[in-house]
Amino acid sequence: MRLITNNSPYRQEALDKAFFMLYICRCEYQWIxxxxxxxxxxxxxx
Length: 46
Description:
By secondary structure, the protein is mainly alpha-helical. It has one helix spanning 9-45. It starts with 8 loop residues before the first helix and ends with a helix.
């Protein structure tokens, strides 16, 4: 795979997609973490 070193639109688009994917993953991680905490609270009260 050849990395594009100049600021081409392809490179910018790839970076945008990468950051977008990271952002989605981070949101999903926070959501899953919240669900786990919620489940722990529910199971500890039983």
